[in-house]
Amino acid sequence: MAEYRGKKVTLNKPRRTPGGRKKFEVFVKNDAGRVVRVAFGDPKMSIKKDQPGRKKSYCARSGGIKGKTDRTSANYWSRKMWGC
User: Fold this and answer.
1) Which residues contact 66 (CB under 8 A, 6 or more apart)?
2) What is the C-alpha to C-alpha distance for residues 62 and 84, in angstroms, rounded to an integer?
């Protein structure tokens, strides 16, 4: 558990954000040791990782985006949800 803006939050565990601007959010510590909120995903779209063609296409498309290995980037967490 960590603290973000006075609230206790769980680190490195994505959760849904009902009614939010993004579909998921996750709290992580950055290089400076501060807890940051990373929001990702379109709330109007569904993840269809069970369809091999769509998964392959998304993983190829998102592989060239910056932040593929940075835990504080939305791309990292989105790729993790897709299983890339």
Assistant:
1) 73, 75
2) 9
Q: How far apart are CA 35 and CA 1, in angstroms?
A: 11
**In which domain, by residue range, is 71 found?**
2-82
Q: Could you read off the pLDDT of 71-82 as tens digits, one per residue?
A: 999 999 999 999
Q: What is the DSSP letter of 13?
A: -
What is this structure's pTM? 0.88
Calculate helix-pair angle for 52-62, 74-82, nearest 10 degrees. 160
Structure token digits, residue 35: 């807890």
What number of H helices and E strands is found in the chain? Answer: 2, 5
